[in-house]
Specification:
The protein has about 240 residues and is of the alpha+beta class. It folds into 2 domains: about 5-90, Elongation Factor Tu (Ef-tu), domain 3, CATH 2.40.30; about 95-240, Threonyl-tRNA Synthetase, Chain A, domain 2 (2-Layer Sandwich), CATH 3.30.980.10. It is built from 4 helices and 15 strands. It has helices spanning about 90-115, 145-155, 170, 180-190, and strands spanning about 5, 15-20, 25-30, 30, 45-50, 55-65, 65-75, 85-90, 120-125, 130-135, 160-165, 190-200, 200-205, 220-225, 230-240. It has a 6-stranded antiparallel beta barrel. A 4-stranded antiparallel β-sheet has the order 9-10-15-14, covered by helices on one side. It has a 3-stranded antiparallel β-sheet with strand order 11-12-13. Helix 1 crosses helix 2 (about 145-155). It is globular, with a radius of gyration of 19 Å. The structure holds zinc ion.
Length: about 240
C-alpha cells in the first residue's frame, strides 16, 4: 500500500521514501507525492534520486488499487528494492496542472451559479491548455467573453481553496458533492470522502491537486468554443 502524500498537501515537491519493490520497469514506494493521474488531471513526472549522483527519470505514474507504480527510465539494471530514495516532482508541469484543475472547478461552479444548473460532463487538463465539456444547449460562442470575465473576476477575488476529509454521513448531507455518474457510484462506497472546497463558492468530491488560493491561477483566456451537438458544448482555455 502506498501512502498518498498529495492528498493531504498538494505542495509537496520533494519527499523521502523507501522502495518496497523494484519490478524492473517500475517501482512501488511506501509513500509518494507523485500524482498518478485521474479526474482529468495528468500523472506527474519527475525524478527519483538514489544518491547525489544517481537519478532515474519518472516517466509515468499509475495507481492500481492501493499501490502507485512509478515507471522509470533506467540505464543500468540496478535493483532499487529496499533502498531509500528522494522523489522530486517536475513542479513546472504539476503547478500548471493545479492551476488548470482549480480553474475548471471555478468555471463549473460559476456556470452553476450564474446559469442555474449543473453543466459539466467532463474535462481534460494538458500542460498548456484545458478543455471542459458542458451540457448546456443554449450556450453559444457569443457568451464566451462574459464567461471568461466571470472566471477571471473570481480568480481576482482570491478565494481560498481547501481540502477536507468528511465522513460518509457528512458527505451525504451535502448536495451535488459528486457531479458525475462514476463519482456518485464511488461516493456510495467510500467511508472517508476527500472534498475540495473553493470557500464560499463550491464543494466537490475530488482526488486531484489544487492551488491554495484562486489568485495563483493568474487569469484564463478562452481560446475555443465548439458545438459538439445540440446539448454538448466544448470550451478550451489557457492560462493567460
Ligand atoms: Zn476536480
Amino acid at each position: 500500500m502506498t501512502e498518498l502524500l498529495y492528498l493531504q498537501d498538494s505542495y509537496i515537491k520533494e519527499f523521502i521514501a523507501n522502495v518496497e519493490k523494484d519490478f524492473g520497469d517500475y517501482v512501488i514506494l511506501d509513500k509518494t507525492a507523485f500524482y498518478p493521474g485521474g479526474g482529468g488531471q495528468p500523472n506527474d513526472e519527475g525524478w527519483l534520486f538514489l544518491n547525489d549522483k544517481t537519478a532515474f527519470e519518472v516517466i509515468r505514474v499509475e495507481k492500481e488499487e492501493d499501490v502507485v507504480r512509478h515507471f522509470l527510465k533506467k540505464s543500468s539494471d540496478i535493483n532499487l528494492s529496499g533502498k531509500t530514495v528522494k522523489g522530486i516532482i517536475n513542479w513546472d508541469k504539476r503547478y500548471k496542472y493545479m492551476k488548470y484543475h482549480t480553474a475548471i472547478h471555478l468555471l463549473d461552479a460559476l456556470l452553476r451559479k450564474n446559469y442555474g444548473k449543473a453543466f459539466l460532463t467532463g474535462g481534460q487538463i494538458y500542460v498548456d491548455k484545458a478543455r471542459v465539456d458542458v451540457d448546456f444547449p443554449e450556450m453559444s460562442k457569443s457568451m464566451m467573453p462574459e464567461i471568461e470575465k466571470m472566471v477571471n473576476n473570481e480568480i481576482n477575488n482570491g478565494r481560498e481553496v481547501i481540502v477536507k476529509f468528511l465522513s460518509k454521513k457528512e458527505a451525504e448531507s451535502i448536495p451535488d458533492l459528486a457531479r458525475t455518474k462514476p463519482g456518485q457510484e464511488l461516493l456510495k462506497k467510500l467511508e472517508i470522502v476527500r472534498v475540495v472546497e473553493i470557500v464560499g463558492l463550491d464543494m466537490q468530491m475530488d482526488g486531484g491537486t489544487h492551488v491554495k488560493n484562486t489568485k495563483e491561477i493568474g487569469a484564463i483566456k478562452i481560446t475555443n468554443f465548439e458545438n459538439k451537438g445540440s446539448h454538448n458544448k466544448r470550451i478550451e482555455f489557457v492560462l493567460a
